Amino acid sequence: MMSSALASTVVGVDYVPAGLAEQAWVEQGQLSGTGVAARDGLLVPPLRSFFGGVWGRNGLMGGFSMARVSTTTITAAVGTRSVRMGIRPSLDYRRWFMEPKTGAPLAYVTTGLHGVIPYSKEVADDPSAEEKQALKESAESDRDRIGALGVQVGLGAEVRWDNGLGLGVRTALIALRSQASDDQTRTVSSMIYPETALTISFWF
Known about the structure:
Elements: E1 9-15, H1 20-27, E2 47-55, E3 58-74, E4 79-96, E5 105-124, H2 129-146, E6 148-160, E7 165-181, E8 186-203
Antiparallel strand pairs: 1-2, 1-8, 2-3, 3-4, 4-5, 5-6, 6-7, 7-8
């Protein structure tokens, strides 16, 4: 039986392999154009780390990732610089169906929240009033495309060993809301899709 002290902390990684859905997303031109939104591939890679703590049959798991793209363009007349960044925190709650122990399958339910905090800035050397407004609107449009909010609910199972290693699988249904805008329109997108991950964890 794994003691509560040994099971108090966990770090690990989830592996979510890319599939046909990601390829279709790219071919249909559905990327955000910023490079750092959740659906662009940099911010949410196939291999994702997590960490957390447990007490009894309950656990809280957190995750964090960040992607930043900075571009500087210099011409004979003017220099411009753009910065786009997405910060993605996540928090999941797990509830095991049985008291955690080693050497036996452990099943759990999980639910959680994740979001993308956007940042975008456009600057130029000695811009006119019209150019300042255009740069501001461009940065606001990028922030709209980067930002997102999601929830998930799912099931998982794992096996832990006395040396602290754990292997498992997790499947969840994810709902994600994002938006994009330009001078004339604003488009709000909502997606619901399944996600299955292989999990390697280390328990302390």
